[in-house]
Each structure stands twice: as C-alpha cells, then as structure tokens.
Amino acid sequence: MRAPIGDFDDARPAPDCLDELTEPVAAAVRAWRGAVPADQFLYVDTDPAIADTAVFVEHHGAQLLEESANCVIVAGKRGDTTTLAACVVRSANKIDVNGVVRKEIGARKVRFADRDTAIGATGMEYGGVTPLGLPADWPVLVDAAVVDTPWVLVGSGRRRGKLILPGKAFAELPGAVVLEGLGLSAD
C-alpha cells in the first residue's frame, strides 16, 4: 500500500505491525476505539539515522514539514507538584510553552522534560515519542492545526518507523485537549 503523504513505498496498517512498535504504543493501537478505525493508522518503516525532522523531510519530501507533527514532553511545576504533559504541534511550529501550555496545565514554570524523564515516563525511545500510548492521566495538548490536517506523520514510539494518522484522530486520544495557538510560527 502506498502512503497518503510523503515518499514511502510501503505503508501498512499499524494493527498489522504491532511488533514494530514499543509496548505502550502497540497497546494503544490494540485498545483504540475512536471514530477513526485503527486500521487507518499506518506504519511506515524508516531509517533511524534520519529520524530528526530536518533530515527526514529532506529525504522523504519537503511537504512533510506541514504534514508531520512533533510530540514533545513537558514538565510543569507549581509548588511541589510537577505535571507531565505531551504537546503535539506541526513540525514547522514551536510550542507556546510559556503561554498556552503553562495556562492549560496550571503551572508557574514549564520546561521541556529531560531525556531520562521522557524515556522513563513514556516507555518510548527519545526522538520517537508519539502521543499514542502515553500514560492515561497525562494531558495531551494538541494544536488545532494538527487536527485540521488530513494526514499527519508522527513518531511510532521508536526512532525507526513512523505512524501516519488522520488528523482528526488526534482529538480522540486519551487526555486530548485541542487548543488554538499551541503551535507558534518558527520564524
């Protein structure tokens, strides 16, 4: 099957590729009950050496910068309480950490989670974190532009491989909060 976006020769339904995913992501695909059926989630095998966004879009198609999203883990602190959350924005955008994120999770300070925290808390590989399969009690802040994109390329939980999902599926993720203005222009 050909992928609906990007230059990928082999796209397969994610439920047929569970062995290629980390356990939390595979479990989320198995348990998915959203309006968008899980068999519309596609897995594409990719080279982990080119997983970083700039190199990836150069290799698989420049249009992917507008059709892909990054999932970044943040840590918000208020007093002695730390809240971990995921932020999903189009790859061409930055995250409004000090505005939208801080307000939404009720934190005084927000920072990007360090590598060990992101890996340990998600069970995913650094550089491959995806909003599928995150802890159920986490807020998953999704920029409205991601939901409005017909097909979105996102991590698979590993540096090898990516998932392609209909944008509207991101609004149905456990803990999803769709927000206008979460993603800022990178200019």
Secondary structure: elements and pairs:
Elements: E1 11-13, H1 23-31, E2 42-44, H2 53-60, H3 64-67, E3 69-78, E4 81-90, E5 93-95, H4 97-105, E6 109-112, H5 115-122, E7 140-143, H6 144-147, E8 151-155, E9 162-166, E10 176-179, E11 183-185
Parallel strand pairs: 4-7, 7-10
Antiparallel strand pairs: 1-2, 2-9, 3-4, 3-6, 5-11, 8-9
Give a written overview of the molecule:
The chain is 22% helix and 29% strand. It is of the alpha+beta class and 187 residues long. It has a single domain (11-182), classed as YbaK protein, CATH 3.90.960.10. A 5-stranded mixed β-sheet has the order 6-3-4-7-10. The mean pLDDT is 93.
